[in-house]
Specification:
CATH topology of the largest domain: Endonuclease - Pi-scei, Chain A, domain 1
Number of domains: 2
Largest sheet: 7 strands, parallel
Strand content: 35-45%
Radius of gyration: 22 Å
Shape: elongated
Mean pLDDT: 86
Number of helices: 6
Order of helices and strands: EHEHEEHEHEHEHEEEEEEEEEEEEEEE
CATH class of the largest domain: Mainly Beta
Structural class: alpha+beta
CATH architecture of the largest domain: Beta Complex
Length: 330
Amino acid sequence: MRKIWVTINPWDKNMVTTALEGGADGVLVPAGYSEKVKQLGKILTIAEDGDLKPGQDVVHFEITRCEDEEEIIRLAREKTVILGCRDWTIIPLENLIARDVHVVTQVKTVQEAKTALGILEKGVGHLLVNADSPATLKQILSAVREKGDTTPLQEAEITAIVPVGMGDRVCVDTCTAMTEGQGMLVGNSSSALFLVHSESVVNPYVAPRPFRINAGAVHAYTRVPGGKTRYLSELAAGDCVFITDYHGNTTEGVVGRLKIEKRPLMLVKAVVEGKEISTIVQNAETIRLTSPEGAPVSVVSLKPGDRVLVSMEAGGRHFGYKIEETITEK
């Protein structure tokens, strides 16, 4: 999950407010100002009197040569390393990302932030924004949040739609108003998740609820930040989930409420490159999967041969974490 810290030195109340409103995860402030930050909002502070202390929890490291990378790797095992470069360059970052080393990358402009987020098609996971004004800070935070992550999606061919009787299904009400083509990845197997469309569709039966995904049965998996999956029934208010669109663009959403109710259920079976996959959803016209073109497709109108979007993953999961192990799920 990407983190964003903001440097506010000298102290500037407007910069702190902009950081809070823009969704920053932490602020680096001069000694003596941590309490002033807390009075404005709940956020991590990095300061001598803060939640994290420079030198003790967080260290700055100025990289000047390739040999410095080994020292950075050593430091990163115990502390958070804020990386500095004499000239802003991506080569040291490429080397560290390739070795799966996590450092804090400093940026001053929107372009630097976008470049850092695109390195090796993976991007850095932690930014320290050194903006010169609240306006610039707002632009950078907006650009970073829009960038999000990308989840590769594939087309699956529907093979069967079978009513399976009553069961407990989960509606996930998020704090995000979604648009057409957006939803959550849900499935019977953690390695095969269907893009279940949000209830952002106008229909004659109920008013649109663009914040809601009628996701599936209580046992189903969904992908969440941190490289994990969780059961739908485990989610609760305040938890983070992934919201994905039909291009694979993925952003974080916050759960506002979970609704678990008994409803008639339907088993949806499909095949991807010869592999059989499935999910169980409520048997209702307003429940939709997503076509390759991003259109919502009602599950009651699905028929064999139709194509929908899914996310496939090799290997298995252990307590939600991805592992390289052969696991068969039926």
